[in-house]
Amino acid sequence: MKALPVTTLTALALLLGACAIDGGGALFGGGGAATTDGIEAALSERAYVINLGSDELNVIDLRNMELIASVSTVGDSNHMIAVSPDLERVFVTSSHTDQVIEIDAKSFEILSRTEVGAHPSHMAVTPDGKYLAVMEEQQGATGAVALLDIQTLELSARIDEVNLPHFMRFSQDRSRGYVANLGGDDITVVDMQTQEAVDHLRFDGAQASDGLAQGETGFADAQIDWTGNLYAAHRGSGKIMVYDTVGRRMLPALEVGGEPSVVFAEHPFADAVELAHVVNSGVDRRLSVIDGATRQLLDATLEGDEEVYGVNLSPLAPNYAFAMLRNGSAIHVVDIKRGELVKRISVGGNIETASTTPDGRYIVAAVSGDNSIVVVDVERMEIEKTFDNVGSYPWSVLIPYGQNYCH
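Predicted structure:
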């Protein structure tokens, strides 16, 4: 396919923004250096932000806090971003055109448009780096998960024993994948070697006939903490499923009520942050904290929001969580050990998602209601920089090797 043009900033801004920075060494580890028109930019030191209301993929150089490109993807209702293991290719799901768009991370040219099943939304690169798992939410009667060869983007397998698949996570030994079914009452377990569904996780006492939920009342995500325990909030029942992916056994469920969204348990920081997981209950507008060591709810509950689709952590603030308040147009910084609100950071519009850099220094948030992107300095708990007018409704953020999720 012929390469499509890229919409960038002015040539002067691009040159001045990148040439003044030393391209040697990667700030966040891994990755390498890319050359675009003679300009060095370490691929691991970027934040990618996709817009939902317009087609741009915004690219931020995190070393000098400059917006270095705004790529016209010609997608429609772009939803999520993924990167290849070598960081040289960027993938974007275009939900309304049923495509995965492949972009060269060096030249910002469109490499390919791969047709997939109906309404692709979230993606995940398998831990072995061989496959791109694409959630096809409206494929067939109840959706499907497509496993694409990450080199060729050809279909390797399609898993259809799902119900409105919303996210896929993986065990630490890489042997199993766990698909959160937003339209069901179960988690689909996939054998990654055979690429087939082999089990369905349900609450104790639930039957297979209970698998159909009404609307989006099932599991939005099934995040796995660094100890190997999976946490999945079930909206309809208000319960939290807890499952040991190492021992492959169900653990006692937790009750939080209030239509919980996602238990934010998965991040790259391991024991450098407090082993505590935050979940928002929208009906009650409160945040609950789960002690990851005891797998019990802490007594303290904190002010949340009707919708909190992001909670970010950092090793530079190991006892704090940064909750993205969608309706409150702010970030609440909470002390998860003491159960206290520490600070409210106003951002000027609703936030959909955010990512934390691998070193924990910054949180990059998509302020969708303000068509802007903010970068928060974690230690100062203040906005370091704001990028205005980045396109219509910035939606999803990805930072290589950082804490990433989507909504």
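Summary: The chain has a mean pLDDT of 89.
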